[in-house]
């Protein structure tokens, strides 16, 4: 019997940490469907209030290079893997998003950050065994200037409502980052995380030949990192009234990771995560009330600092970023004594030092976190702006 908070903090910590890691990751990049173009939805005044989105999601392979003087990764766009249909609708800041709830008509204002919902979401894989996902999400736009040109970034948290085939298990989460170019063009990166305790999707082997397609976003590089607890600097809770947790002081070790996957008619979905060495750390403050009693709990971070070094231990740069908009979803997970949480969120990159000096782009988080015992498995994507030669690698670390 667990009698004290100290018992909860240590109860089967290694087993819970192992269970949190049992997940399949599906990184994707979208390309407009030539057979079904995106359709702008207009107000009576002829201004954009939404977009009926029809995109093809392509397999995205992410493989890091050895961090000698900077952090780089090879990105390869593979074959089409799924079709995507979403009704992307702007909404007022005080709108409470729920599946099926229509927002009042809200006109796009590219000069300011706005909220949006993603309704009628359907992600249908190209192979029947893989299945389909019905999903709902919401997020926020962020106006920015890149290479002297205005762009409208966006981030979103998408949760599955139900699914079929291999993705039928409840609770798949998709963290989305990208840009929208009015009236209807979008360029998005997806990161699906699917709990996979039976290892029916995860694989220890290469998923299969990648049939390379033209890169739809050549001036963007995605780097993947895995956050884990640091035994030398444990996470500490921040408490509020009644000693209830309202957040935590977060310290994580960061590992290079390689991500790849494939959907086929024979084997269905096969996802490969290869974990590399520790090449950095993350510190910050998490705002999160785990015992709020809600099915969806808001999360955000502040003072986020990513610090990186090369294989020899020499510092190569820092990157500053926070989760500005995120959600936590409580779920039971054996052998954790209390529910654990799926985390998904995003935020803007806020510059840095060294190899990340003046870096811009977006941060995506898709994770699983346990408060009692205190452990985590956090997957981060850095979506970095810039010419290929800055963050793109032409080769990758042999061990990954």
Task: Put the structure in a nutshell.
Helices cover 5% and strands 57% of the residues. It is mainly β and 400 residues long. The strands form two sheets. Strands 10, 11, 12, 13, 14, 15, 16, 17, 18 and 19 form a ten-stranded antiparallel sheet that branches. It has an eight-stranded antiparallel barrel with strand order 1-3-4-5-6-7-8-9.
Describe the structure.
Strands 10, 11, 12, 13, 14, 15, 16, 17, 18 and 19 form a ten-stranded antiparallel β-sheet that branches. The radius of gyration is 20 Å and the shape is globular. The mean pLDDT is 93. The chain is mainly β and 400 residues long. The protein has helices at residues 5-10, 13-21, 388-391; strands at residues 23-32, 39-42, 48-64, 73-91, 115-125, 132-146, 149-163, 173-181, 185-195, 220-229, 236-239, 245-264, 268-287, 297-309, 315-321, 325-331, 340-354, 361-370, 375-385. It starts with a helix and ends in a 9-residue tail after the last helix. It is 5% helix and 57% strand. Strand 8 (173-181) and strand 9 form a beta hairpin. The longest helix is centred in the N-terminal third of the chain and has 9 residues, at 13-21. It has one domain (5-195, 218-391).
């Amino acid at each position: 019997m667990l009698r004290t908070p100290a018992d909860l903090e240590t109860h089967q910590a290694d087993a819970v940490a192992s269970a949190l890691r049992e997940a399949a990751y599906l990184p994707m990049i979208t390309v407009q469907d030539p057979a079904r173009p995106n359709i702008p939805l207009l107000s009576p005044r002829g201004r954009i209030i939404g977009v009926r989105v029809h995109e093809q999601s392509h397999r995205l392979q992410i493989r890091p290079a050895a961090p000698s003087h900077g952090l780089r990764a090879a990105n390869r766009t593979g074959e089409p893997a799924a079709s995507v249909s979403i009704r992307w609708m702007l909404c007022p800041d005080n709108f409470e998003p729920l599946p099926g709830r229509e927002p009042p008509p809200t006109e796009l204002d590219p000069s300011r950050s706005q909220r949006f919902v993603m309704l009628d979401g359907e992600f249908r894989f190209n192979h029947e065994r893989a299945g389909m996902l019905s999903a709902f999400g919401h997020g926020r736009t962020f106006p920015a200037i890149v290479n002297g040109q205005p762009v409208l970034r966006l981030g979103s948290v998408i949760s599955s409502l139900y699914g079929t085939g291999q993705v039928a298990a409840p609770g798949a989460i998709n963290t989305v980052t990208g840009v929208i170019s009015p009236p209807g063009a979008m360029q998005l990166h997806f990161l699906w995380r699917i709990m996979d305790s039976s290892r029916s999707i995860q694989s220890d082997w290469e998923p299969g030949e990648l049939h390379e397609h033209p890169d739809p976003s050549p001036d963007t590089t995605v780097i993947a990192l895995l956050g884990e607890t640091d035994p030398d600097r444990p996470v500490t809770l921040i408490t509020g009234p009644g000693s209830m947790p309202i957040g935590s002081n977060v310290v994580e070790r960061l590992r290079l990771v390689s991500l790849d996957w494939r959907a086929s008619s024979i084997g269905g979905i096969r996802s490969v995560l290869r974990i590399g060495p520790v090449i950095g750390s993350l510190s910050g403050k998490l705002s999160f009330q785990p015992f709020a009693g809600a099915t969806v709990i808001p999360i955000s971070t502040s003072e986020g600092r990513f610090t990186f070094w090369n294989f020899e231990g020499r510092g190569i740069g820092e990157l500053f970023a926070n989760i500005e908009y995120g959600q936590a979803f409580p779920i039971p997970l054996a052998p954790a004594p209390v529910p654990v949480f799926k985390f998904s969120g995003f935020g803007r990159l806020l510059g840095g030092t060294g190899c990340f000096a003046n870096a811009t782009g977006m941060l995506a988080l898709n994770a699983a976190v346990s408060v009692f015992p205190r452990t985590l498995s956090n997957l981060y994507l850095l979506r970095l702006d810039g010419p290929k030669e800055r963050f793109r690698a032409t080769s990758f670390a042999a061990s990954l």
